[in-house]
Amino acid sequence: MKMDKKALRRTIIYENDEKLETSWIANNSISHEFSDGKGIIQLKGSVTKIGDMAFDDCALTLIIIPPVVTRIGEAAFRWCQNLVYVSIPDSVTEICDQAFIYCPRLKFVKIPETVTRIGNYAFCNCIRLASVNIPAKITKIGNYTFFGCAFSSIDIPETVTSIGHEAFGMCSNLTSLVIPDSVKQIYGCAFEYCTSLENVTLSESLERIPYGMFRECSNLISIEIPDSVKSIGWGAFSGCSRMGAVTFGKSLTKIGWDAFLDCSGLFLFELPDSVTQIGESAFEGCGMLPRKVKEKILAINKNAM
Q: Across the strands, what pairs with 277?
């Protein structure tokens, strides 16, 4: 079967030729020459690494990566605005920073279990990415890694020990979340503006809830703070207007400013005696709190409400 000229123009196969330098698709080697085209790229031959910015701002729709590639470089597919599907083989061990940032039509990615690192901003603002997996060898989820993605659920493996700044921020379709006990460190605003999020189970290894962690998660129903947590950062739950119940752990000593600002539905919790610091406006806009709870809050900080 012959391929017509139009289809041929839409399919580019890179083999062992002058475009490949020491088994690399070199930095920024293809982006400009392919930026005005559309179609499929299938990599063949001895390609083992895709260089930084190799396909930056290309108009391709599909990329087939051969099963010998081990590394996808920084910003390798950045701003590929027509890219819908990526096939990542089991040979890949590293997906670098910004590898697929701003690919607004990307819907499907299967990350093989061989991957040990997913970089900062790797899938940031892939606003149609409805399904993605985190391999079991991943120990850290970087800053903004999945910011603005479209998935409704995500399985965080028990190998993960830290979650970066805004790693899942603006994932507005995310409805439920389980953070395994392996996670000991979460950075600021990690899940902010996840506006469909209703149910959360926190790691019992956390010692602090960082600033802005669930800010403006307006559908969050309730939260149970583990006994391991000693402090809640500023604005951690601000704007969680639907949240009716909070259970505080026994080790909590500090609640930061604006921590529960405008949690207008909050009516049920007991403040443990271990709490000695409450920040400014920590419970401002929480008009439904029981009188005894309000008195206890104001005794610690008269400006907390």
A: 254
